Amino acid sequence: MNRLAKCLANYVPLTPLTFVKRASVVYSNRTSVVYEGVHFNWSQTYERCCRLAYSLRSLNVVKNDVVSILAPNIPALYEMHFAVPMAGAVINTMNTRLDAKNIATILRHSEAKVFFVDYEFVPIASQGLRLLMAEGVDHNSSTQQSMPTVIVIDDIENPTRVGLDNKLEYEQLIKDGDPQYKGEDVEDEWDAIALSYTSGTTSVPKGVVSSHRAAFLSTVSLIQGWGMSIEPVYLWSLPMFHCNGWTFTWGVAARGGTNVLIRHTTADEMYKSFLSYKVTHMCCAPVVLNILLEAKSHERREITSKVNILTGGATPPTGLLEKMEELGFHITHAYGLTEATGPALLCEWRAEWNQLPRNHQARLKVRQGVSILSLADVDIKDKKTMESVPHDGKTMGEIVLRGSSLMKGYLKNEEENAKAFQNGWFLTGDVGVIHPDGYVEIKDRSKDVIISGGENISSLEVESVLFKHHAVLEAAVVAMPHPRWGESPCAFVVLKDTETTTETELLAYCENNMPRFMVPKKVEFVKTLPKTTTGKVLKHELRKVATAF
Predict the structure, then answer these.
(1) Sign, CA torsion 413/379/16/248
(2) pTM
């Protein structure tokens, strides 16, 4: 049997590019993209991708060239998830909240050949380009740094002409492209499809390289694990720049769905979309759940059909999930990271859990769950011995992963690759437990575990208790120095607009709802918590403040 050979008929490299081609045939007249007054069907979306891929090749974009994009959730950004790899290039979607210095850093490190910029971000992108030009040659690179070709993405309905002096424009590239061009063949599924930079909240961002194989397998595993049926209506509340939209840029095409695009993730825009388009699915960080819950009366619309929400990026408190379910949303919790090409674990729901009380269901929903099908294995290991911890739901260790959906590695960073890949595992840096039923639950980032008098305290558990207090909108807990215990919990709390409470009252509430050693030694009330664009609290900034107390 080993002599049976692979051939063009029985072996085709895995790539999510096949999804859009199939959608153009199977779902040709089905609406693919809705953005304000713009509507495309799948036949039109595929043709636009072909045209753009052709134009990129005309600009001398070749295999493994990086194409960077700074844009919100607009049709152009969606199309480029297919058009850029169709041209043989690697897509790099930039965080729209980056400053000029980080933009320059990414352009330099990635050696981007082309840089697409939405008209709204022309000023900050121009600052980044000036910094890049001033920095000159990257002496750590094997090739000489050159300035990328800049292409402006103007408003598709009402062109502004902003930033177009001597610059190419996106829609003109579409117009000039050849609709018969079908893209470059993917010769090796291990080839890179995407370059995504980590948030860089504590250090220089790392460039995560994902393969066509990883993107394909993650996409298929996620639409299966989430139970996304054909022709979903998907609301883009999650930025596409975050892990390529958790692979749903490709996944919605695989299911022949409709992409409802909104430039700004506001309560008004989301509720209008629920009503106008009968949204069935959306992804978001827990911060967006709060936006929906705290919506003003004039922003709310009646939800007439179930909206399935996949949430991740930070662990949502059980109380938050209970409130969302009461509004008619169906929540599934996921866990992932850029290095895993999106979500790696899903809290798969079991039918027998439907008979449980709602508060018990909420406690089950906050668990990160079991591995998606593209992973070969997930485990919790003692970091010192690399031995598996007991499946008791109590013993903490580091979450480790193995599977074909993991990244190829960090670009030009062998030191970090060596730290991340050890003994056949990818080390996530997250601390968790495994329950007897095999479901994983995160307890903290390894750097966020508070060790007080020899006791390990999960900041997430303290935050979960605080959130259940009627006055608390958000809470973040970090370590602060303690003269006797070494360190102790310090809570930063955001109150609801209509509620008041005091530090004394909150501490008394904590003493009644958690072990004494876990009770914060201080509560600091703040107006907002510092966060990344994906809703993760920047705890290193809070630790700096707590150190001064």
Answers:
(1) negative
(2) 0.85
